[in-house]
Each structure stands twice: as C-alpha cells, then as structure tokens.
Automatic annotation (TrEMBL), chain A:
<feature type="signal peptide">
    <location>
        <begin position="1"/>
        <end position="24"/>
    </location>
</feature>
<dbReference type="InterPro" id="IPR029058">
    <property type="entry name" value="AB_hydrolase_fold"/>
</dbReference>
<keyword id="KW-0732">Signal</keyword>
<protein>
    <submittedName>
        <fullName>Uncharacterized protein</fullName>
    </submittedName>
</protein>
<dbReference type="InterPro" id="IPR007428">
    <property type="entry name" value="MlaA"/>
</dbReference>
<dbReference type="GO" id="GO:0016020">
    <property type="term" value="C:membrane"/>
</dbReference>
From TrEMBL, chain B:
<keyword id="KW-0732">Signal</keyword>
<dbReference type="GO" id="GO:0016020">
    <property type="term" value="C:membrane"/>
</dbReference>
<protein>
    <submittedName>
        <fullName>Phospholipid-binding lipoprotein MlaA</fullName>
    </submittedName>
</protein>
<keyword id="KW-0449">Lipoprotein</keyword>
<feature type="signal peptide">
    <location>
        <begin position="1"/>
        <end position="28"/>
    </location>
</feature>
<dbReference type="InterPro" id="IPR007428">
    <property type="entry name" value="MlaA"/>
</dbReference>
<dbReference type="Pfam" id="PF04333">
    <property type="entry name" value="MlaA"/>
</dbReference>
<comment type="similarity">
    <text>Belongs to the MlaA family.</text>
</comment>
<dbReference type="GO" id="GO:0120010">
    <property type="term" value="P:intermembrane phospholipid transfer"/>
</dbReference>
Length: 429, 253
C-alpha cells in the first residue's frame, strides 16, 4: 500500500516536472499573430523604471541638402540618448522598419539598458521618413549595405557630439527586426573601419531575406481584408466599432498602450484574419510614409509628378490613397531597382534580392563570436526553413524562444534578461 | 468686463482666421506636368470609399491653422507648460488636475442629464459632492476609490448621441482638431459653464480668469500630443481620420 502510494507520488512529481519543462517559457500568447499585435501587456512585462533622464538631440548630416516644403520639418535627424554619471559602456539601438528612435519598443529597450547601467543612444530606422530626408545618402531606403553604412555614419557623427559628455568604456550595438539585420552589417563594416570596435552585437528578431519578409507582410494585408482592399473602409469601420464597444463596456478602459490588449480581451477574435490584417495595415502605413518620402526626395516620378514641388500646406491626400494600393514590391520595381540600375546597369533583380539577405554575410555571421541573436520559432516575417537557417548559422549564439511572433515578447521578463544579459556577460569577464 | 474680454478674444480669433484663409486662397497652379508612374486615375476605382476621406472643405485653412498651432505650442504654450512642470512637484500637479476635473464635473453632469443617462448623472453628482468635501475642494479624488468612476461627456457627444453628424472637419486655433458638431458643443459647454456653472456661483471675474488660465495649462500638461511628432508626412490626414474615429468611439459610450 505504502509502496503504491509512493509510486503514485513519484509519477505525480515526474508529471509535474515534465509539465514545467514543457512550459518552461511562459510568455502568455502562443498564437504568433496575437503575440505580434498585442505584444507584452504591462501585467506580464518586466517592470522597468518609467522615468529615465532622456535627452533629444538633432544633427544635420548633409548641410547642403535641399528639402522640399512638404517635408519641411525633417531636415535634421533626431535621436535620443541617456547618460550615465560614471564610466560605463555605450550601446547603440537601431529601430525596426518605419520606426523612430522613440517607438514603444525602443523606449522599452532604453529603460532596460539604462537601468542596467549603460549609456544609450537610439537611432531611427533608415526606413523612417526623418532618416530618409536627413541621413540617407541616396534617399532610396532598402539596401542593407547602403543603409547600414548610413547608420554607421550617423553613429560616428552623433558620437562626435556626445563624446565630451560621456565616459564610455566600450561600445555595444543592438537592433530589432530590420534594425537587427542592419546591426550585423554595421558590425561587419566596423571590423574594417574600427570606429567603435563593437565588443558585442545582438540581433533581435532579424529577417533572413528582406524580399521574402516584405512579400509576407504585403500579403498579410491583401489576403485578409474581407472582400479585398476595395472594402478596406468597411474593415476599418468594423475595427472602430469593435474599439468603441470595448471602450463602452467598461468604466476603466482608457485610450493608452493597453487599449489594444483590452480590445483583444473583450472581442477575442474568432480567427487570425483580423489580426493578420492589422499587421498588414501597420506595415502598409510604414510603406506609405517611406515610399512617399523617397519619391519626393529623389523626384522619382513614382506617385508624385517630377514637375511638382509639393509645399508645406498642399493637398496630398490623393497620394496617400494611391500609396495605400501599392505594395512594397511595387516600390522595389518602381523606385528601388531603377535607382540601382542607373548606378550599375549590369545589376539584375535576382542579384539584388540576394544582396538584401543575411545570406550575403553568412560567413561573417558564422565566424564572428561577437554576434548573438534572440529570435522566435514562430516569427511571422520568416519563411519556412529560415529559422532553421539562422539556428544553423549562429549555433550556440542563438537563443530561440518557442513563441512570441514578431517581436511580441521583447518586453517579457525572460527576454529582457536575455537581451541585457547578453551584454553583461562580457562586462564581467 | 468678462463679456468684454470674451468679445475681444473672439474678434482677434476671427481676424486671425481671415488672415489664414486669405493665405490659403493665394495659390498658383502649375500646368504642363508629366504624370507620375502611379496616378489616382490608373490606381483608384470610383465608388470605393476610403477611410482617409473625411469631409474637409476648409482643408487649406485647416492645414495652416495646424501649422500655426505647432508654432503656438512651440514658442508659447509648451514653454509655459514646461515651466509649470519644472516648478511644480508632480504631487502638486496631480492635485491641480483633480481640482480642475472636479470643477468641470458641471459639464459632465449637464451632458449626462441631457442624454438621459441617469445612473451616470447620479455618479457625477456623487463624485462632485464627495470630492468637494472629503476630497478637500476637489484636490483629491476619493470618489474613484469608492467605485464612482468619472463619467466624461461633453455637448459634442450629446449632439452625436442624438444623431447629429460630424459636419466639416475643423482645426481650431490653439485647441486643435475638431469638427463643426464638436465646436458647437465646445462653445455651448463653455457658455453654459460660464452662465450657470461654477464661475456663475463664484461670480468673481478675476477668480474665473485665473481658473481658466490654470485649467488651460493643466490640460496641455496632461495632453501628450505634439504637432508633427508622428514623423509621418501624412500626419494631417492621419490625425483627421483618427480624430473622427475617436469621437465616434466616445459617442458610442
């Protein structure tokens, strides 16, 4: 009898142990689309100091560049920094597609790194309008090599302004999404130029092939609006109505960062489609901003006539509507390829697509011990097989979580600890 | 005396608007232009509705007022707000916010009543009584802790509640995005507040003037919106669309 009880007990302990092992990673959203949209709501997120001493700086990279009226407020590049009192390492943060230095993910990273004792400098993505106008050499974003070189230039210029204010021991670099891919390219560039001698570089949720990822994101919008893009307004009105019902049902619901999560909890979408569509919308909005800015800056004649100089108060809504109907791949064909073909007529589309991939620096990624990566098994921007490719290339330097979607789990305590810990492990050695 | 100041500032606003409107009309047209690769004609279909299309017949003027507000914020309003934030401890700022909110419960009360939301009307009255007494003239907000959550309503929402449409989009000088319905609501609320609300109870012009100033600074202090901070070249369109949707959501409540 006692033996039987003991055996039962042993089985129970085993089961419990197995369960806890299987659920070792407890980020709450197992659905990749939910994770990507909702992210990490405050109740699950790492608790970080809300107020950190943030300074905003601006810098003119191309003093002679003329900026058209419609982009009048973007001629200087804005960035932010947090300064430590004593000697400390400095980490550069690079934002993801279309995001600025003060996007919510960037602010979370700033708090985490500042809290851990780093000086922090945050830069907008080369796909952000401000960067395209103020700091992009060609104002045609998308080329990993060129954009990373532009970022490297900005880092040097910003460091030139800050070096008297900070006591920096060594340099680190990280970025999420597209900013992660650029971080790796910058690290490679820095091996030759050695302006910073980055000690460690972390990629958070990088794409493998930009072309593949962009195609996935384009399709998320087109494939998931019921009835197609012609019916976008109906979809939008439905979302507004759902938000309205969320707002009306509870006394304590407010419009803030948590609102999307409140709406998710209240409406509990029955399928993935609305979530996929929302991700597609967000990407399309970034594209609209980016492509319009590039078109105006380079006079590409893409949606704005070459003969028009748009002023500060001009009616530009029709351009927004046209761009709402165009994909990122339309931009690739209509502005990107023509620009690079004009520079080098021999370049082919497929050669270009290969160049826009982590595979083009595979050897460097394989052999450089300073590069690490945090990723998710179910990231939506990767095609089947691409996560295995990254796992193979980075080996033990890759930390891959079972879920989290695209950057959805970045603020989860385990992720924040992994992100900060990656850099702290070198400090102690 | 109070009427006089109101009239003067109204005249000043009108003059400013006229000036901006005149600037909006002086616009040169360029003929003979090469069409771009993607035009509205070859991309957009007719009889499709677009979420970004908001009725905005005053757009040229609205865009200029939008820019005016940016400069007003930058050179006057925000420096004042920043100074206020620099001088005042956060704790005092919160007391001021509570005080201002408590005084404006008057508008929540009238508008909940006008919408026949009796439960919300009762809660609002209860909040005002509790916060004005136990909460020391509204400096603290014990009512929320007792489960009486603030029931915000304004006359724009009341009009919307009874089916009045948005009307044309309007960017108001200093106050920012609005539309004809909400502007009507704003003016009505202000008139009712002045004629029958706390200013009428106090009946002292100087006190009212000081309160209005403090309330304006406090409201801007709590409003995190900054003109041209989205980084989008289409910020005007985005804000126009989101303002309309946000009001729609608030009216649904």
């Amino acid at each position: 009898m006692l033996n039987q009880l003991l055996r039962l007990f042993a089985v129970c302990v085993c089961l419990l142990l197995c369960c806890s092992l299987a659920n070792a990673y407890d980020y709450p959203f197992a659905n990749r689309y939910v994770a990507t949209v909702v992210g990490t709501p405050a109740e699950f997120a790492e608790v970080l100091p809300a107020d950190i001493p943030t300074k905003i700086g601006k810098i003119k990279i191309f003093p002679d560049r003329k900026v058209p009226g419609v982009l009048w407020n973007m001629d200087e590049l804005y960035y932010s920094y947090q300064r430590q009192e004593g000697p400390a390492p400095l980490i550069f943060l690079v934002a993801g597609t279309g995001a600025s230095f003060k996007s919510s993910k960037m602010q979370m990273m700033q708090r985490a790194f500042y809290n851990a004792g780093f000086n922090v400098v945050s830069l907008s993505s080369p796909t952000h309008p401000n960067f395209i106008v103020a700091a992009s050499t060609s104002s045609v974003p998308g080329d990993l090599q060129e954009d990373s070189a532009d970022l490297y230039n900005v880092m040097k210029a910003v460091w030139g302004k800050l070096q008297d204010k900070m006591n920096v021991t060594e340099f680190y670099l990280t970025g999420y999404s597209l900013g992660a891919a650029q971080s790796a390219f910058i690290a490679k560039l820095d091996e030759q130029e050695k302006a910073f001698n980055f000690k460690k570089v972390l990629m958070i949720n990088p794409p493998v092939s930009l072309y593949n990822s962009v195609e996935i994101l384009d399709n998320l919008l087109v494939d998931n609006i019921p009835g197609g893009l012609d019916h976008f307004n109906e979809f939008y009105q439905k979302v507004v109505k759902a938000f309205g019902e969320t707002y009306a049902h509870g006394d304590k619901v407010e419009f803030n960062d948590q609102f999307l999560y409140e709406a998710y909890k209240y409406k509990k979408p029955q399928s993935d489609e609305p979530l996929e569509a929302l991700i597609g919308v967000s990407f399309r909005i970034s594209s609209q901003n980016m492509v319009f800015t590039s078109d105006v800056m380079t006079k590409a004649g893409y949606v704005v006539s070459r003969d028009i100089e748009l002023g500060r108060h001009d009616h530009i809504t029709p351009y927004l509507k046209v761009l709402g109907r165009l994909t990122f791949l339309d931009y690739f064909e209509g502005i990107f390829m023509p620009h690079f073909k004009a520079l080098d007529p021999s370049i082919t589309e497929s050669a270009m697509i290969q160049q826009l991939s982590m595979r083009s620096i595979e050897n460097y990624l394989r052999t450089s011990p300073k590069i690490g990566m945090i990723h998710n098994e179910d990231d939506i921007i990767l095609q089947p097989g691409e996560i295995d490719y990254l796992r193979d290339v980075l080996g033990s330097r890759a930390t891959i979580y079972p879920h989290g979607g695209h950057c959805g789990n970045m603020a989860y305590p385990e992720n924040v600890n992994a992100m900060v810990g990656f850099f702290q492990s070198t400090q102690k050695n | 005396m109070q009427n006089n100041t109101t009239r003067k500032s109204a005249l000043l606003t009108m003059a400013l608007l006229a000036l901006l409107f005149a600037a909006g009309c002086a616009k040169k047209q360029n003929t003979n232009i090469a069409p771009p690769l993607h035009t509205p004609e070859n991309t957009l279909k007719e009889n499709v509705e677009y979420a970004v299309d908001v009725y905005d017949p005053l757009e040229p003027m609205n865009r200029r007022i939008y820019t005016f507000n940016y400069y007003f914020d930058k050179f006057l309003f925000l420096p004042v707000v920043n100074t206020y934030e620099f001088i005042m401890p956060d704790y005092v700022e919160d007391r001021v916010s509570n005080f201002v909110d408590n005084i404006f419960e008057f508008n929540n009360f009238t508008n909940n009543l006008l919408q026949l939301k009796f439960r919300s009307t009762a809660i609002t009255l209860g909040r005002f009584l509790v916060n004005s007494t136990i909460g020391v003239a509204g400096l603290w907000d014990p009512a929320t802790g007792m489960g009486m959550i603030r029931q915000t309503e304004d006359f724009g929402q009341t009009l919307g509640h009874y089916g009045v449409g948005n009307g044309p989009y309007i960017v108001l000088p200093i106050l920012g995005p609005s539309n004809l319905r909400d502007t009507t609501g704003l003016v009505t609320d202000a008139v009712a507040f002045g004629a029958a609300g706390p200013p009428a109870w106090v009946d002292d012009d100087d006190t009212t003037l000081i309160f209005n100033g403090v309330a304006a600074v406090d409201k801007r202090h709590r409003q995190s919106f900054r003109y041209y901070s989205t980084g989008s070249p289409f910020e005007y369109e985005m804000i126009r669309m989101l303002y309309s949707s946000k009001r729609e959501i608030e009216i649904m409540k």
